[in-house]
Specification:
single chain; 416 residues; alpha/beta; TIM Barrel; eight-stranded parallel sheet; binds flavin mononucleotide
């Protein structure tokens, strides 16, 4: 048995009982494992979410998607890139919620079963994404147009976590490939304190998974929903009432419609309208949209009757957004940028080793090797946004292909 397994159930109500909740919003292409660990280490948000993961993709065997689910991996938490702070071994993303999107209820059921097996603290259903390639298919915020389907999806996800507690195995996920199942076990083991080296071969992964504490199954895994105020105009009252019929444990509301995407300002009066409904239903309620500091977060909590908020874009390049103004950080954002860059590199290596382990005959790559670091450039640009004459510096940082190159440029500019 391992040291770090969490057999304690997460509950949104218990989190709320500790005080107002300030969490990190899910953001595709941003809130990966490295980002979440950095935000937890320096900002300590009360809860974090994975990027959204497509359930139909999982049912069609897209193994690559599994990299979004890597969390709390010991290889990363203990890595040199995260420094040698005394609290390092206790660093954890928990509570960490996996977010799913799609429109096929059966695939949601199977994907939620995977999430439960991986040991996440909760499952969140995305009903808020405004991207055309998602909504044109009826998924994300597109579900606002099909309330009966939206309800069916939540029922299936709740059924999956209930079945998991009652003993369901991944045999009950017939459309999920063996590689994805194996990756599921490996991710659970990594989050339970095993290193990838200890997993060595597929039979070992299966064997070690059976040895995990059986109490893991007794955890309740709450289901939550994240959505918007409406499709082309706010229909907050009817839409939120529809969702509450499915009895989620928590609900997050971004105060914009699908049509607004990210334009204009989030409408907190609509969020307040929903807050009254949600409170009466005994569901934990988080408001979201344009919160840029802890102080603004508390102002929203006190003014609009929400139990907490999610902060998204204001966390870009700034985990201290989760700290109050009088917090005295001992690391600069530039030092954090370097740490984050090395951790990001390690996380991509870890994911490729994971793919090699579960699919040795058909190597899966996230992106070509020489391009692996490119998605990180945007983070570098965010970290230097407050620097005078950032333009030149940013132009240089936009050319880097490794953490060491980024570090060299920040040194040359005397920022670290
Ligand atoms: C780059 C980006 C990616 C996003 N991806 C997701 C996602 O995967 N799932 C989700 O529920 N919301 C996603 N969102 C929406 C955010 O979670 C949040 O609702 C939105 O950014 C408003 O909050 P903010 O004003 O604090 O940024 C994304 C937003 C951005 C900017």
């Amino acid at each position: 048995m391992r040291k770090k397994q969490t057999t304690v159930s997460f509950s949104w109500q218990a989190l709320k009982a500790k005080g107002s909740i300030i969490g990190l919003a899910p953001m595709d292409g941003v809130t990966d494992v490295a980002y979440r660990l950095i935000q937890k280490k320096y900002g300590q948000p009360d809860v974090v979410f994975s990027e959204f993961v497509n359930v139909e993709g999982l049912c069609h065997g897209v193994l690559k998607l599994m990299h979004h689910f890597v969390y709390d991996a010991k290889d990363l938490i203990k890595s040199k890139s995260l420094g040698n702070l005394s609290d390092q071994t206790s660093l954890s993303e928990r509570p960490v919620i996996a977010q799913l999107y799609g429109k096929n209820p059966e695939c949601f059921y199977q994907a939620a079963l995977l999430v439960a097996h991986m040991g996440f603290d909760g499952v969140d259903v995305n009903m808020g994404c405004p991207a055309k390639n998602v909504t044109s298919n009826g998924a994300g915020a597109g579900l606002i147009k099909t309330p009966a389907l939206a309800q069916e999806i939540v029922h299936q996800v709740k059924q999956a976590v209930a079945d998991y507690r009652a003993g369901a195995t991944l045999d009950q996920a017939p459309d999920i490939s063996d590689e994805i199942k194996l990756a599921t076990y490996a991710i659970a083991l990594l989050a339970s304190g095993y290193t990838l080296v200890e997993l060595s071969l597929p039979p070992m992964v299966r064997e070690l998974y059976t040895r995990l504490d059986p109490k893991l199954r007794e955890r309740s895994i709450p289901v939550s929903i994240k959505t918007r105020t409406g499709y082309d105009k706010p229909t907050t009252h009817s839409w939120i009432s529809t969702l509450l019929e499915t009895q989620p444990e928590a609900l997050s509301l971004h105060g914009r419609t699908l049509r607004q995407a990210y334009t204009g300002r989030a409408d907190w009066d609509e969020i307040a309208l929903a807050a009254a409904l949600v409170r009466d239903a005994g569901v934990v309620f988080l408001g979201n949209g344009d919160v840029d500091s802890v102080e603004t977060a508390y102002e929203k909590i006190n003014t609009y009757g929400v139990d907490g908020v999610l902060i998204g874009r204001a966390s870009f390049g700034n985990p201290y957004v989760f700290r109050s103004k009088d917090f005295k950080p001992d690391k600069s954002l530039f030092q954090i940028a370097v740490e984050h860059a090395y951790l990001y590199e390690e996380s991509t290596k870890l994911m490729h080793k994971l793919f090699d382990l579960v699919s040795p005959d058909q190597p899966v790559r996230l992106i070509m090797k020489e391009k692996l670091f490119l998605p990180f450039r945007k983070h570098l640009s965010w970290y230097v946004k407050g620097v005078p004459e950032a333009k030149k510096l940013r132009a240089k940082l936009m050319q880097v292909s490794s953490a060491s190159e980024a570090e060299a440029i920040l040194r040359e500019s005397r920022l670290i």
